[in-house]
């Protein structure tokens, strides 16, 4: 049974009129900028993506990089380990670490499609602004260290997101105004009840900062054998402390994290480069193809050959 993560702020019961008006305009912009076509669409605004989907979909396995996600319409479920995060236009999702997740649109129809915007966050900008804000960032409200959270979407945050999206209509303004609005959005996040989670990345000796370094190391070396003692020394932690804090942030052990990276990369390679399962398994670090097939089937629900065939058929239909 999946668990709902602790320490999530409660959603607002009733939408203020201001939020309803802002959300309607955001939905209109996303529909127009995606040309009413399903899929993920890169914006002319740096680090801004739009998403549209006219039907619920199967879980999509990705490594979610640090980002703010806001919905104008529909709802989505994100799974991290056994934790489940569900959000809709009343909430935002913020990811502060690189996390392997399964995301699934659960509320979308042709008449009322899922519409969302993703704004990628720069860890360096987080660090810079967090240090500048200092004590203006609220202290932790709980011991939950997960690198992903949902929070109430306030009119001020939604307004800033909308102003950023509007810049797509005035490309000449993007270079000057987009960085200013993105900094405001980051300010809104850092001064929200969840801001302390982002701010922890700014503290060089914090556990969150060290886990971020461990995650970056694993992403760069996912195809190499994992030796926990070496990784712990790399981030200046004991092996037991690394394991404890890594699981607190990612909901999985370093070995489980590496395994998910390997399986997702093998899937990408087979799909994009048309290599067979044996070749893909060796490229991502597996010595045993039978072990790869077992773990792949357990993770994705089907053996590699059948899974890739299904994905290619879905691509052709799309």
UniProtKB/TrEMBL annotation:
It comes from the Bacteria. One of its GO terms (molecular function) is DNA-binding transcription factor activity. Residues 212-310 form the HTH araC/xylS-type domain. SMART domains: HTH_ARAC (SM00342). Pfam families: AraC_N, HTH_18. Keywords: Transcription, Transcription regulation. Gene3D superfamilies: Homeodomain-like. The keyword Chloroplast does not apply. PANTHER family: ARAC-FAMILY TRANSCRIPTIONAL REGULATOR, TRANSCRIPTIONAL REGULATORY PROTEIN. This is AraC family transcriptional regulator. It comes from Derxia gummosa DSM 723.
